[in-house]
Specification:
heterodimer; A: about 270 residues; 2 domains; B: mainly alpha; about 0% strand; globular; transmembrane helix (chain B); membrane (chain B); ABC_tran_2 (chain B); ABC-2 type transport system permease protein (chain B); transmembrane (chain B)
Chain lengths: ~270, ~600
């Protein structure tokens, strides 16, 4: 199956600091990929390059076959993006905001109504969708942004910390939604600190540390690489991070699996 | 194309044309504006009415000022047809619009930088299939509106006053609006293009370049102004001075400047031909004026294209550069003036001292706060230091009257500016503390201490610079020692009263949901604080100024024996002082005690 998202030797600096270094990664349709890492590891920079907010200094990012720099509009047309800090227009209602988004993706008013009704039902927005967004709680905003991201049936959904600020019921809703959409062929790229959620719903995980992607694979593959550790993702992740922290040098991206053991292989 | 399984519909996505995209953005903006206006009407009528009324007052004041000035020129310099008349108006128009031309370039560039690169809306739009040029245009329109409202407020009364004074024909008024709109588009577009260019291509030099150009402009303008006003007073406004001034500001009349096209177009439109004049169609003022308008419109359209293409070419690159700029960490050391402050506050209880030092540190480490304070009070200081033209000359009653009036007006101005600062910075302090209340609320100190510390901070912090400014004004005016004492006493009453009103109202009407002090100040509580503060200033200044003023001029004029005997006014001086003290006591005690009561009962969720 052809990759729908491709990072090809991607690199990006913040001033003199390397934020993402030599990132090579491919994601396929019908796959939920969770990117893990400490604060400052490079997760958000990776996401920003994927959605077109930042330009890679080295390499290329392809979405649906389109280069995000050369064909930005085409590339972002196949994307839906849920940022960690949801932004809505304070003085628009949720419905007006969704109408604006639908218009941006080329739907006429009749089609927009159908799509908005679908998302309102799916995310439970009915009780507040006609109120001004400035009165929304963080959870309401997050659900509205999810609705906006899913409105145009994207092929790739990029979510940055989707569980933060949500109540348990909304978290369940998001997890179920993501799995359901993935089963229909959606590719989800999720950055999170919620290891339990990643363990529960991700098909594959990636672990970043200090700008480098240390590991890509399934949680099972990570377990096999560390049979002496407890099997929870939390335990494995912390072990991986602590092992890397204690080493004097971060291994090059290509050699990352060596640090994990020969069994850990990227699919 | 996508199919919706829940409804069974097959949905077709169309590629969005540029026109449709523009309509979409405008529709969104109109909805936004409608919701904003509706909300303003429902929830902020007092503030809106106050803003409109004060803007109208300001506009009318400017109109009267310009009209009086233009009548003065017409009657004293020369009427229509006189060479001095034409030269003077030309100088005024070119100088005025050339200055605004430069300011618009800077302001639109700076505002665009903030609205485009620092706003979450840009981040949202850039992750959607909106054209880069459209995103830039959308934010540019915002910057244009923010940059231009000041221009409209300044230029429209001037243009209207000129038209009335010179008896301009109808088309002068008809051409005013299109000329202004097409003119402002040019410098604002240039500012936007420079902003994008600097951020995308010279990210490391952008601050240095902007600062150098701004500095060079200030130096050139400053030199020209200094050379104009610094000559001996006897030569001021003489023929030679006038010619030299014209020559000095000749650079504002360069034909390539958009401000020259606007000035010439307006002056041509306002020109009336004598009935005997023989002119061909091409020389008619309306034709000449329309030609300048055409030049303005064509250049504005070219500038529009430049913004569109700059946006298309540089937006993403510039955005990446700004996002990835290294963020420097600020290393904080204990400054000597913090230690000095701690020593100076030795008489206060330790918790109050700690709270005062904390508030002081927050203030001095936030340049947005103290820079505004510095700019306004610095400008006032400059004005006060240039008051020597009013210096008392002998015992001339007219001069004494003026000097006294100006000195009290200065006092009122200091008070009014202080009231805007207490509204903007002191009033929101309690609301902002609410978000940190988990720290302060758990400290082993009575809640009142927090409020008292705010009051002391505001009163002390405002009294020192205000007293110094008023002293500078009085010294420059060389006024009577009695008036100096009255001014200092009034200043103390003002500072204490204003601090109490701001702290008290801030505690009575806190807004713990809002994190922006400017938004807290712009709410109902802030507006009420401003209105009450202004009333308080007027009452105090009237109570202390009027009796003092009449006492000083009593016995010096012809009416002294019957109406203005100094003995009578000595009593009034006393009554006025007592009244001022009473008002100040009420204004200090009532809001503060009400604020303390409200603060004790406050429940933070």
């Amino acid at each position: 199956m052809a990759a729908i998202v491709e990072f090809k030797a991607v690199g990006r600096n913040y001033g003199a600091k390397r934020a993402v270094d030599d990132l090579n990664l491919e994601l396929r349709t019908g796959e939920l990929f969770a990117l893990l890492g400490h604060n400052g590891a490079g997760k958000t920079t990776t996401i920003k390059m994927l959605v077109g907010l930042l330009r890679p200094q080295d390499g290329a990012v392809l979405v649906g076959g389109y280069d995000i720099v050369e064909a930005t509009r085409e590339a972002v047309s196949v994307l839906g993006y849920v940022p960690d800090q949801p932004y809505l227009y304070d003085k628009l209602s949720g419905r007006e905001f969704l109408e604006f988004i639908a218009g941006m993706y080329g739907y006429d008013a009749r089609q927009a109504k159908v799509l908005i009704d679908r998302e309102v039902g799916r995310f439970g927005l009915a009780s507040f969708v006609d109120d001004l967004c400035e009165s929304y709680s963080h959870g309401m905003k997050q659900r509205t942004v999810f609705a906006a991201a899913m409105l145009h049936n994207p092929q790739v959904l990029v979510v940055d910390e989707p569980m933060v600020g949500l109540d348990p019921q909304s978290i369940r809703l998001v997890k179920d939604l993501l799995r359901e959409e993935v089963s229909k062929g959606l590719c989800v790229f999720m950055s999170t600190h919620t290891l339990a959620a990643a363990e529960e719903i991700a098909d594959r995980i990636g672990v970043m540390r200090q700008s480098k992607l240390l590991f890509t694979g399934t949680v099972d593959e990570l377990r096999q690489a560390h049979p002496d550790r407890q099997p929870s993702l939390e335990s494995l992740y912390l072990h991986l991070m602590n092992t890397e922290d204690s080493s004097s040098e971060v291994p090059p991206a290509g050699d990352s699996h060596a640090a994990l053991g020969e069994d850990a292989k990227s699919p | 194309m996508s199919s919706d399984s829940s409804t069974g519909l097959t949905l077709h996505r169309h590629s969005v044309s540029e026109e449709a995209e523009a309509q979409l953005f405008w529709r969104m903006r109109l909805r936004f504006a409608r919701a904003f206006m509706g909300q303003l009407y429902r929830t902020a009528r007092l503030r809106s009415t106050l803003i409109v009324a004060l803007s109208l007052l300001f506009w009318s004041g400017l109109f009267v000022l310009f009209q009086t000035g233009f009548y003065f020129v017409k009657h004293h310099v020369g009427g229509a047809g006189d060479p001095y008349h034409a030269q003077t108006f030309k100088l005024v128009f070119h100088l005025f619009f050339a200055s605004l031309n430069l300011m618009l370039v800077f302001s639109s560039g700076i505002i665009l930088y903030g609205t485009l690169f620092r706003s979450p809306e840009s981040r949202l739009l850039m992750t959607m299939p909106a054209r880069d040029a459209r995103i830039v245009l959308h934010k540019f329109q915002e910057a244009l509106a923010y940059s231009c409202w000041g221009f409209f407020l300044l230029a429209s009364p001037m243009m209207l006053a000129y038209g009335i004074v010179v008896g301009a024909p109808w088309y002068y008024y008809a051409l005013m609006a299109p000329m202004i709109v097409s003119f402002v588009y040019i410098p604002c577009s240039l500012g936007a293009v420079f902003c994008l260019l600097l951020v995308a291509k010279f990210p490391k030099l952008k601050l240095a370049i902007v600062a150098s150009v701004a500095m060079a402009s200030v130096v050139v303008a400053g030199r020209a102004i200094w050379a104009t006003v610094n000559g001996p007073q006897i030569e001021l406004f003489g023929n030679e001075w006038f010619q030299q001034t014209l020559h000095r500001f000749q650079f504002t009349q360069q034909e390539w400047l958009p401000s020259s096209w606007l000035s010439n177009g307006l002056l041509e439109a306002g020109r009336t031909l004598p009935p005997s004049a023989e002119t061909t169609g091409f020389d008619l003022p309306i034709v000449q004026s329309c030609m300048y308008l055409a030049v303005l419109i064509m250049n504005a359209l070219i500038c529009h294209l430049m913004v569109v293409n700059a946006g298309k070419a540089w937006l993403r690159e510039a955005y990446s550069t700004v996002e990835c700029a290294p963020r420097q960490r600020r290393k904080i050391k204990v400054a000597w003036f913090d230690l000095l402050l701690e020593r100076m506050l030795f008489s206060f209880p330790k918790p109050v001292k700690l709270l005062l030092v904390k508030d002081w540190r927050l203030l001095r480490r936030d340049p947005i706060q103290w820079s505004q304070f510095l700019i306004f009070f610095g400008l006032l200081g400059l004005y006060f230091l240039n008051l020597d033209r009013f210096r008392s000359q002998g015992n001339d009653l007219g001069n004494i009257t003026w000097v006294n009036m100006v000195s009290f007006l200065n006092l009122a101005v200091v008070g009014l500016i202080l009231s805007t600062f207490t509204t903007r910075f002191i009033f929101p302090m309690i609301s902002l503390e609410g978000q940190r209340f988990w720290v302060l609320g758990l400290l082993p100190l009575p809640r009142e201490t927090i409020l008292w510390s705010k009051f002391i901070f505001a009163a002390l912090g405002s009294w020192l610079p205000c007293a110094a400014l008023i002293l500078a004004s009085d010294l420059m005016l060389r006024i009577d020692l009695l008036v100096v004492a009255v001014h200092q006493f009034t200043c103390l009453l003002l500072c204490v009263g204003l601090a109490s009103i701001a702290v008290g109202l801030g505690a009575m009407m806190p807004d713990f949901r809002e994190s922006s002090p400017s938004k807290i100040a712009a709410g109902f509580g802030g507006t009420l604080n401003l209105v009450l503060s202004a009333l308080y200033i007027i009452l105090i200044v009237v109570c202390t100024a009027l009796p003092c003023h009449f006492y000083l001029i009593a016995g010096r004029g012809k009416l002294s024996e019957t109406f203005m005997h100094p003995d009578q006014w000595r009593h009034w001086l006393l009554y006025g002082t007592v009244a001022a003290i009473l008002i100040a006591t009420v204004a200090t005690v009532v809001p503060l005690s009400m604020g303390l009561k409200a603060f004790r009962r406050l429940e933070l969720s």
